[in-house]
Prior knowledge:
The protein is globular. It is 26% helix and 20% strand.
Amino acid sequence: MPESKKLQIRCSGCQALLKVSSEALGKIIACPKCGKKMQLAKPSPASSLNEPKPANHVSTQDDLFDLPAASYSMPMSTSPSKKVTEAKASSTPWGWIIAIAAAGAVALVLIPVGFFFLSPIVQGPNVIDSTPEKSPNIPSASEPLVVPPKANLPSSTSRDFPKLGEPKPFGDTGIVWHRFELPRQGNKSLKLNVFIPKGTHADKSLPVVFEAPAGTPLLHGASIEIPQPDSEFLPFTEAGMITISFDIDGPMPPNVSPTNGPTYMPLLRQAYSNFVAADAGVENGKLAIDFALARLPMADPKRLIIWGHSSAATLSLLLASKDPRISRCIALAPITDLKPRFGDILVQEPAMAKFLPNLNNYIVSGSPITYISKLRCPVFIAHAKNDDNEPFKGTKDYVDALRKAGGKVDFLELEREGHYEPLLKAAVPKALEWLN
Length: 436
């Protein structure tokens, strides 16, 4: 079979990259490695996989769709008897993004859209989709975006912060937790989950670890869930630290499927704009820090830590670079430069930059590598050499640049732990040792 009739997908079960015949589109196939059955989306009538390419065409359809998948994740408990709940979700629908962006900006023929590769999402305790809406408000691509102002965050001395109140026991661990919604002018309240170790604590005696939901495609935010003691574990809290999970502005509604491009894409455009207005979640992290210093007397202002995995690791590096209150940063399998992740798409479909406002600027401002010279706190970074989601080389280059700039970084190079659960099991205990 000619190479031009092969498509590359990612198995939704084992994450293996597979090449399938274009004749399989619209059919159910089984992964030859793990046996997982998947149905491949059928191309629209307007597109054609056999459409001839211009003479100067360089990249292939495989290049467009062979993008790393995202994952939601949280660290595993150090206890071998505990698990992390897993969920499935679609990765970023680049086919629809490119097609709709091109159609909305100029009268172009839709590019070939043949399938969406699926990726497993390891859903941790701090992640959940936003509350479903019965009929979401769908803005059109040409409708002006409603972007919340950046200057809507109360300072750490604000009286708008809710008081602690009575804590809730977190299972039989002795840990207690609080759920807060911080009011913001002109914007939705920011949700926080605050976990406090067992026991009585003197003022300024405990480190505080901040964490954001992972697994986004770095084009929109995500919301945190109400935690369930039987399905989540908090190694940092179990080790005697306060843990605070916070929302990232711009979540996508969970009841809108990415396969429904005409509905999904305008919602993505609005979510993306809210996400960028919050500086890719940096403003959300700053507000969480403000709250901790204003309402948690046991929080030590000299020991404020940000940690994350995958897309949340990207936010960890950004926040540590932009908020001097962060004393240490932990980033596991981070995306340090957005240009390799999105650059090829923009070269081939410049209309994307019109559909998602200021996308070219965001690719620079949302990349941790942009702020190498501003990252002054000690950093712990871990990455596996066989990571098929985010290339190891990107993180290695970032670490080398950070060291050259005088940064303090400990780099854990793993061999075969991949991007997901094995990486977390290997790296989180090492990160805890590094903190002590």
